[in-house]
């Protein structure tokens, strides 16, 4: 099969022929319909993210059709040809996190496309049918980004809901591939005012189309004062940082109100000092790590209801290097999906 492989950190992907995987006992082979091009793959491809052995096929936002079952995987509610999305957090299946429904928190850290081979290819080997959810009528090309670009902000926003009472505000930093979904989940699930902070004018406009109450350019003079003004007199109840560099984390912690919750989602590796007087009293800082299989089912239900808008650009897999170049320069509006 054709696959886009990374052979050297910092180099381009190489499109090449590799053996098509054969599913072993319990495994399922998926024919890829589309794989979302995620910003975190930029960090892996550059070598910033440790622990990936090369050569490797990246791609952890996958959807497609069931191609073949390994021994014992048939008869578990799926048929050959079914359109499915792939839940990417492949846990051990028997630790307390896995049994609690949070396989993405499993210590084995087997994420398809970040260790096991991923979906920038014609086929994807999935270790178990439990990682597959029927799209239920959604086009699998358009559904692929739901498995990360939508699932990750969904899980992050759910953590913030107890803080988002009427009259309070949420500040969302970074309205790219994940942030565009984050805005929608905040508006769908909470009564809070949504203040988007984004330097790209096209992404600010998209965020407002998707329901943001206000969108502010952080590079503007007085941006901090403007964000504080829009957040209300008690400060932001919630900050969601989808970028995660030093400057966004500093800005986010500066606008966070008393007892507020800062949720870090962006993997850019930034940090912010944590001290008693450096933050508002009883402010809380946490990260949000992807989402669970059950939360993916909830995201699919929202997508099927028609309430969730996906802004997607499709590209052939052969253009993967151009796509990642554009992604690195912030030139993708919404999500890019690679189609083999
Ligand atoms: Zn991702
Ligand atoms: Zn586990």
Automatic annotation (TrEMBL):
A Pfam family cross-referenced in the UniProt record is ADH_N
**Which UniProt keywords are listed?**
Metal-binding, Oxidoreductase, Zinc
One Gene Ontology MF term: zinc ion binding
EC code(s) of this entry: 1.1.1.1
- Note the CDD domains from the entry: arabinose_DH_like (cd05284)
What is catalysed by this protein?
a primary alcohol + NAD(+) = an aldehyde + NADH + H(+); a secondary alcohol + NAD(+) = a ketone + NADH + H(+)
Where's the Enoyl reductase (ER) domain?
Answer: 10-338
Read off the InterPro entries from this record.
ADH-like_C, ADH-like_N, ADH_Zn_CS, ER, GroES-like_sf, NAD(P)-bd_dom_sf
Q: State its cofactor.
A: Zn(2+)
Catalytic class of the enzyme: oxidoreductase
**Which family is it part of?**
Belongs to the zinc-containing alcohol dehydrogenase family.
Designated name of the protein: alcohol dehydrogenase
